[in-house]
Amino acid sequence: MPVTPVMPASRLARIGALVVAAAAFSPLAAQSGAQAAAPAPVVFVTPAWLAERLSDPSVVVLHVAQNRHEYLDGHVAGARFLWPGAAVRSTPDVSVELPPLAQLDSLLEVAGVSDRSRIVLYGSGPTTVARAFMTLEYAGLAGRVSILDGGLAAWREEGKPVETGERPVARGKLTLHPQRDVVVDAAWVQSHAGQSSVAVLDARSPEFYTGANAGGMPRPGRIPSAVNIPFTSLMGAQGKLKDTTALRELFTAAGVRPGQEVVTYCHIGLQGSLLYAAARQLGHPAHLYDGSFEDWSHNTSFPVATGEKK
Hints:
Layout: H1 11-24, E1 44-45, H2 47-53, E2 59-64, H3 68-72, E3 75-76, E4 80-82, H4 101-110, E5 118-123, H5 126-141, E6 145-148, H6 151-157, E7 162-163, E8 183-184, H7 186-192, E9 198-202, H8 206-210, E10 227-228, H9 244-253, E11 261-265, H10 271-281, E12 286-289, H11 292-298
Parallel strand pairs: 1-6, 2-4, 2-5, 5-6, 8-12, 9-10, 9-11, 11-12
Antiparallel strand pairs: 3-7
Helix pairs in contact: 5-10
């Protein structure tokens, strides 16, 4: 189906659209500590929430897995297979980038996604699922795509229906309206880094953030203005995201203010996607620096910092 290109929406318009969509797409069970001024975008939903809506034909559940065998061996009843390898591409310059929109449009249509679909993602790897979430927000589906908190393990633990094999799926009819400001480049980061209105968040482990481990990059260290919120610190027990109160405490400890605009990055754009999803859960206007430190460290005109942040 055609992909309709649009100029990036203003930040205010984008947030307003998300609030309207969230009202229709009921949120994750209420969590203490959330501010009541405006509903946060719906990012993570519970197994109970999904089970209540599983028979709704507008709800499309996508099992994100590196191979089809994992999906065929057992998945949420009615879920469709989504291979993440088709939702990313590598270039001679960086390991992970967004695919062409026409390719993404076709991939989603084959999975039965249409213009009225409400999508729930899950899979075995939280960063891979978060990457898919960010990609669909970039495609213009923000407010209509969420992540099943805890994935298939949480679904099974609560005794929800699981099936094997694969059902035939009718092709969907989808037109994408990309929100291109979801993903930013090095020039954007360089021009916004250090501004009080923007927080740059590094999702890597501390050893990479400080430069103690170069991680295979040409220059060790970090973007100088970045603060460290390791992606592993976002996860609680049983593969679930920490609750909103705990997430907000992590962000506050890193100096991120409620509602502040954030840009996340990591090695190549996977771990940073989970931090992006957490930021969205907290209601932050968020971007992913898709080239991440792989891109930044290769360009010697961009500064890097090492050691503990002072």
